[in-house]
Write a structure and sequence with these properties.
23% strand, Polyamine Oxidase, Chain A, domain 2, binds flavin-adenine dinucleotide, five-stranded parallel sheet, FAD/NAD(P)-binding domain, seven-stranded mixed sheet
Length: 443
């Protein structure tokens, strides 16, 4: 049995089915996909959750291709940083740590003092796990952290640079920071793209996974079933939901850390205690559609940028905007005559900023877009999607915490955990955690 039909749970279910097991999948909401979700704005179907996946990690594109989905890549449009009152080019960085200081200086993202500080490099060997913020500040100064690392980490984790673990989030940075030359080779022009998506939207991945599962004999996907408790019976499990009890020989919990902690509290109390320590950030995405021929719309928005990031130090409401129409050819084609884009709001510890009506999130987004790009025309449609507790926080010590969780769960034969809380929050890492969980379970 699998609890949770996000991308991790669906992948785990498919791996179990491939190994010849009957599988029952119980999902609390009325649909599969978790954070991969379609929404409609001005009649155009777009992602209102995750929209891309790392292409360099194979698990996401391999799964999508195996399901017959067409892979697409972002256009050549590049991101900007909205800071110091202008949209500035994003220089080459490793999650905000600058790989080219001349490019950084030319971007105007840092003050003259910030640039002096960044150039005054201090090479240090980090001791143990430290935060990304501490690590980058120790080499390049705090302004690099405030204006580059924070917005980039904010995009992935909605987290704070001074809490996120460098070893868990960016192991390559830990290696590189201790070297005299902080540099990576510039990728050749024909290098494979870094990111990918599914043509028509990432939401198509769980939809295809679910369709594949439903085609298999012995597999059942049930929606609207919240699992509330799990207990041991003989060598198997009894799983309790409002609809009644179910029994299972093998149990995979593909749920976020907080519900997982509640479900394993009797089976693996040490894991439950560790899971409770994993924080989650809430975010909201506002998807907006503008009519391309409305006054000033194209001039303000269609500027060759894929969007922009906003450093928290600048105290704006939004933390980023993705110009979906410019980033994805399929969005531009689907939204004929429209420019569809989205803004994101919310960081860990700033839940209060989201505790306002949807209209206020739209208004705040429009005000920031106007200030950043000059757009004044009203959108023809706006859709707000909230992701309460959407993103796990990989704080300093996360790797050791996950090791302790796995050790505790290993004492319960037949039980496995997978999902975004463990080995990476991105889609490929989440899929990888499901493959790993099933391989361990069946070993
Ligand atoms: C706004 C946003 C944007 C993102 N953008 C990207 C991106 O562009 N690229 C990328 O790689 N990653 C992105 N991510 C991260 C990525 O989407 C997620 O980490 C990943 O999809 C999580 O998958 P999952 O299966 O682990 O969990 P989830 O998607 O959270 O699925 C867990 C499922 O378990 C169900 N559930 C919970 N409790 C119970 C219960 N008691 N009983 C039954 N069911 C239960 C939930 O309803 C849910 O369907 C984004 C995340 C968010 C929030």
């Amino acid at each position: 049995m699998v609890v949770g039909a996000g991308v991790a749970g669906l992948t785990a279910a498919r791996d179990l089915a491939e190994a010849g097991h009957d599988v029952l999948i119980l999902e609390a909401t009325d649909r599969s996909g978790g954070k991969l979700r379609a929404g409609e704005v001005a009649g155009v179907t777009v992602d209102v959750g995750a929209e891309a996946m790392l292409h360099r990690r194979p698990e996401g594109t391999a799964l999508a291709t195996g399901l017959g989905l067409p892979i697409t890549h972002p256009t050549a449009a590049t991101s900007r940083v909205w800071t110091r009152d202008a949209l500035r080019p994003l220089p080459r960085t490793l999650m905000g740590a600058p790989l080219d200081l001349d490019q950084l200086e030319a971007s105007g993202i840092l003050s003259a003092e910030g640039i002096r500080d960044a150039r005054h490099q201090r090479v240090q060997q980090p001791h143990g796990d430290v935060s990304v913020g501490e690590l980058v500040a120790s080499r390049f100064g705090s302004e690099v952290v405030d204006r580059l690392v924070e917005p980039l980490l904010g995009g992935v984790y909605a987290g704070q640079a001074h809490r996120i673990s460098a070893r868990s989030a960016i192991p390559q940075l830990v290696d590189l920071i201790a070297r005299p030359e902080f540099t990576l080779p510039t990728p050749p022009a024909d290098a494979p793209p870094v990111f990918a998506s599914v043509d028509g939207g990432m939401w198509r991945l769980p939809a295809a996974l679910e369709a594949d599962l439903r085609d298999r004999p012995g597999v059942e996907v049930r929606h609207g079933v919240t699992v509330t408790a799990v207990r041991r019976t003989g060598s198997g499990f009894v799983v309790t939901a409002a609809s009644g009890d179910e029994t299972a020989d093998l149990l995979v919990l593909a749920t976020p850390a907080a519900p997982t902690a509640r479900l394993v509290v009797d089976l693996a109390p040490a894991a439950a205690e560790e899971l409770r320590q994993i924080g989650y950030a809430s975010v909201a995405l506002v998807t907006l559609a503008f009519r391309a021929d409305d006054s000033g719309v194209t001039e303000s928005l269609d500027i060759g940028a894929s969007g922009f990031l906003v450093p928290p130090v600048d105290d704006r409401a939004i933390k980023a905007s993705t110009f979906s129409f410019a980033k994805w050819d399929w969005v531009r084609a689907a939204g004929e005559g429209l420019l569809v884009l989205r803004t994101s709001l919310g960081r860990f510890g700033e839940e209060a900023t989201l505790q306002v009506p949807d209209e206020d999130l739209v208004k705040a987004s429009l005000a920031d877009l106007a200030a950043a790009t000059g757009i004044t025309a009203p959108p023809v449609d706006a859709v707000v999607q909230r992701w309460g507790g959407g993103l796990p926080q990989y704080w300093v010590g996360h790797l050791e915490r996950v090791t302790r969780i796995r050790a505790s769960v290993a004492e319960v034969p037949g039980l496995a955990l997978c999902g975004a809380a463990y080995d990476g929050v991105g889609i490929p890492a989440t899929i990888g955690s499901a493959h790993r969980a099933i391989a361990d379970l069946l070993a």
